[in-house]
Design brief:
The protein has 64 residues and is an alpha+beta fold. It is 30% helix and 44% strand. The protein has one domain. The chain contains one helix and four strands, in the order E-E-E-E-H. Strands 1-2-3-4 form a four-stranded antiparallel β-sheet, covered by helices on one side.
Length: 64
């Protein structure tokens, strides 16, 4: 689990798909789910930050 925004928890899952990785993030409060695909060589920290950025973007769009 990771923290983001106002102390909210996010569940993050990594799935290897060939030479790529699918990363899924779920906000535990709103149950909004987003996914990204990235190269396995990118590293876990980079992929995690990218999926959290996407989740924050989607949540901000929903709040408008």
């Amino acid at each position: 689990m990771a923290k983001h925004g106002a102390g909210r928890e996010v569940l993050i899952e990594f799935q290897q798909v060939g030479n790529a990785v699918k990363v899924t993030a779920v906000d535990t409060v709103t149950l909004v789910e987003v996914s990204i695909m990235g190269p396995a060589s990118a590293g876990e920290d980079v992929l995690k930050q990218n999926v959290i950025n996407k989740l924050e973007y989607v949540l901000s769009k929903k709040n408008k």
